[in-house]
Amino acid sequence: xxxxxxxxxxxxxxxxxxGHAWQFLQYLLGFRRLGYEVLFVDSVAELDPDAAHxxxxxxxxxxxxxxxxxxxxxDLGEGxxxxxxxxxxxxxxxxxxxxxxxxxxxxxxxLLADAQxxxxxDTDPGFAQMWHALGLADPMGGxxxxxxxxxxxxQADCSIPTCGIDWRTTWQPVVLDAWPRVTAAPARPFTSVAxxxxxxxxxxxxxxxxxxxxxxxxxxxxxxxxxxxxxxLALSIHPRDHQDVRLLRRKGWSLISPGRIAxxxxxxxxxxxxxxxxxxxxxxxxxxxxxGWFSERSICYLAxxxxxxxxxxxxxxxxxxxxxxxxxDVDEAVAGVxxxxxxxxxxxxxxxxLAEAQFDxxxxxxxxxxxx
Length: 372
What we know:
single chain, alpha/beta, Rossmann fold, 372 residues, 6-stranded parallel beta sheet, 38% helix, 8-stranded mixed beta sheet
């Protein structure tokens, strides 16, 4: 008997954002490796017609380029769907072992009611929980099981509220066959792909402001000068942040338009595999809440055999020091850059080994199915 899973999320709303698309592809391709017939469920019902058209074409391109043609549907509103029809979508959801609803994106009452098991997957830990605690929104409601990538949720020094929910935890997966180890010499220095502010604003919760990546990155603006090394930063930043752009350029950062490297899933992968290593500066909310968030992008670097220097968000459960190094302040970041550069082959080998041990989609998704 065929095993089926439906995964709901938003790719269409972020056209030409290949890094975002890869986050969903890891689950779709990973579950397919485990023998599941997968279906990706998206919606453009709230977008204007031009944006909706562009979004649908982007979903179609992403799915087709990864052997998932026919394994997607986009709700156009008023009962109309692009890709798989609504009737066949409902049939797939009804027959699925579970519906994985990323950040509660799917709000279609009919499809949610069709699902045998509704699983909320939290990939932006802190936001949904604090919104709920503040009475601002509740994307977590109406689900049977709740999963988060905040591995430290519920611990005394983690300030992410549990909201009375019994959270299951998981790492994010990487499909190792889709991200093979690269042995060629890197063509780029340390790199990063980032959104300066992201889709959500800061949150004031229990007397503390939980900020964004912009607030953290400014703390490390001196890194190129202090290390004497180059850093390529593919940064999505709004024109209103022109003062930050000037600051970064003045301090020696090489800014690259994300459109140059992330407009296709292959181009995005190429940028990562050409890099020497990743410098990962996290959103303030991840750092301050100590939930143990780790970027799906960083996992792609590791799988490619590219070391990662990551800002510490409470990553004590991961082995660090070889392939993955962490920092909390600019002096530790400088030390991490020099440590990777001084013994690069060792860190490159360890990066791939860490991805195989901790983030292999076969292991991560099999364990997720067990805990569900």
